[in-house]
Amino acid sequence: MPPAKKSPAPAAPARPNSARRSEASRRAILTAAFELAGELGYAKLSIEAIAARAGVGKQTIYRWWPTKGAVLFDAFLMLSEGPDGDAELPDTGDIEADLKTVLRATVEELADPRIAEPMRALSTEIAHDPQLAALYAERLDEPVRELKRARLRKAQQAGQLAADLDLDVAVDAIWGPLLNRWLLRTGPVTTAYTDAVVETALRGLRAS
Amino acid sequence: MPPAKKSPAPAAPARPNSARRSEASRRAILTAAFELAGELGYAKLSIEAIAARAGVGKQTIYRWWPTKGAVLFDAFLMLSEGPDGDAELPDTGDIEADLKTVLRATVEELADPRIAEPMRALSTEIAHDPQLAALYAERLDEPVRELKRARLRKAQQAGQLAADLDLDVAVDAIWGPLLNRWLLRTGPVTTAYTDAVVETALRGLRAS
Amino acid sequence: MPPAKKSPAPAAPARPNSARRSEASRRAILTAAFELAGELGYAKLSIEAIAARAGVGKQTIYRWWPTKGAVLFDAFLMLSEGPDGDAELPDTGDIEADLKTVLRATVEELADPRIAEPMRALSTEIAHDPQLAALYAERLDEPVRELKRARLRKAQQAGQLAADLDLDVAVDAIWGPLLNRWLLRTGPVTTAYTDAVVETALRGLRAS
Amino acid sequence: MPPAKKSPAPAAPARPNSARRSEASRRAILTAAFELAGELGYAKLSIEAIAARAGVGKQTIYRWWPTKGAVLFDAFLMLSEGPDGDAELPDTGDIEADLKTVLRATVEELADPRIAEPMRALSTEIAHDPQLAALYAERLDEPVRELKRARLRKAQQAGQLAADLDLDVAVDAIWGPLLNRWLLRTGPVTTAYTDAVVETALRGLRAS
DNA sequence: AACTAATCGAGACGGTACGTCAGGTCTTCTG
DNA sequence: CAGAAGACCTGACGTACCGTCTCGATTAGTT
Q1: Which domains does chain A have, with CATH numbers?
Q2: Which residues lie in Pro residues bias regions (chains A, B, C, D) (predicted)?
Q3: pLDDT tens digit sequence for A113-133
Q4: Would you say the C-beta of D40 is within 7 Å of strand F?
């Protein structure tokens, strides 16, 4: 297996990224944006507040990001690039248990407003900005989705999942119900619920 | 004493609803709100614009609705109360075919910006306003969800679905993936996709 | 010719002046503008500062005045309409003494920054805005100029001034040197200077 | 004794003026400043615009001039040092005719926005900046004023003007009314007006 | 001829103010 | 007397410049 550990640079380019750009300001802005989204909620998240919290001129934000959503997006990107490396979903050999574990962790995250509120804010922006949505799909959703697919693929190869399963559909079958319930608040987001979702998705609705 | 003919159905009061209230203004406001959400998108949907389009003073909106989201909510409520009665989901006896039919219809609706944009707008407001979310869950989601449950229940009683199935989880398993994909734009919303979702949900992920 | 004593109302119209307009805000704005011009000087006179000092929204200023200069102009107008009535220049019968008296009073005013600074500010705006200049000429300069002409006319009728004198030119001959020296600071503005100006203007440069 | 041929005239140093300084940039800046003042008017005259027009970095301006007014001042200084040498006011022996000639030329200059607008801009800066005013008085006004005094002195010596005349007051009596009327736009600036001013100033206001 | 230090064009930075838009409250006038 | 009209204060928007501060790249004048 080739070494190729880590990828030399392309980690965070995305934007023109002039050599003159202040990395300190960039991090301060992204951190402030994430924090404020968590503290004030989406409604009161303003560029002015981000600039003030970050100790930065407004123009410095407008110079590098086209919209408030793009800032938030980069904030998530920055966080997601911290402790990743090549993380993997747990694999104990029991796909049902593993999926339950992962979803339970997600439920816990969503219970923390400091994480959930920024996620709601970003989700909202995505819902209304197709361009941002494309970026999101490519840079945030896809990497995570690949991890999910990978775990399912292993179960599939172990003969635990149907051989002809469309893994993208399978991922949606597991995570879609949870995310939809969480975002639209159509019901409580509990581990009992996610356990039921996993069981139901694996077994299918039909009478056996 | 007059028979009080007007409102036998407390379906839509919710708010004080003074006798003096102008029904014409109310309808104009709700119609304007829905149209503007469809035309301008969520970003440019302002109370001022709604008031202007409806030919109404701003105060008339603030008098009767607490937030922009509440207006939008009532606009959906008004629409949903038009041709409802006690509609039902189709029942040909083939639960898989029926679910595919229903989801295909949804896909079509979501392709129409005049419907999809207001829905995105409302979804956004719900995502950020728990109170509105509760209203939504009770007054808009629940009635529709009951129709869905009813259809699934019939299939269950016909022995097509598992006897111990949690129907709420089942509803989420069918509609959750679609709504999540649509709202977050993590992939194209097509009938091919919804067909696959229905098949997968019914059959389950496991190898048979 | 009927008495027509002065025009019944036009005290402060000038602008559309809706009936809804808040007189309190108007006065607060004009007062704040005048004071700030005196305290901070022209450079730091900003609409934002005026609004803040007046306890008023910026929009309330922009709603009623097109430019900063127009605010300043109205501030002067307000002041000039306070204690005027039909003031007159002093008339002791000695035109030279009277003119010296008047100019000495002007010198004193110009020595007070609270008066001189706003005047410099207004002068600047006038110098760069022909429209404002026209307003100034008509509503602020002309009334005062008429007082000056009136005094000179009396002296003329008393045979103290040349019968064929162009009174407008005469006014400029008296007040022009002073104002020019003051505004462009080409020399100290003292009563000795104004006395000399009056003497020279009356006597003429020529050898007798 | 060394030749020291370089600077016999300390006419224009004023500033440190390092040997390293780029003369090309200096001229480009002053020219751009003057042109922009004429084209855009005072309001839109910004250091950024000057730098852009001159093809120069902003710092190059800030390095050598303390304020925008100082740049404008030097621009005038540069122009005034071109075709001067030891110019003189015309002397035909007829002081009245000569003064009228000079003022008519001034009227013409003031009619050209490319000259008048920068002058208004500079005048404005002077009005609000005592330091700049002192420079102006010394380096731009005084040399011209000396020419004026010189012409009047000759007339005085020829017995045409009063022997005890204060020449500075006399200069103000001739030029003050014109400049004041021009800057504050209290009336049209015409040759008819300047002729009248000259006649009135020479003859005096008094009845003969 | 190589060094070196000031100056140059460029432009990012933290800020202030601009003039506009909308939010939500309050007041006035009209049907 | 409810409702349209809209003025009001507030606060955020996105832009223009401010004056300061790096960045390499010239470009003198030493060495």
Answers
A1: 23-81 (1.10.10.60), 95-203 (1.10.357.10)
A2: 1-13
A3: 999 999 999 999 999 999 999
A4: no
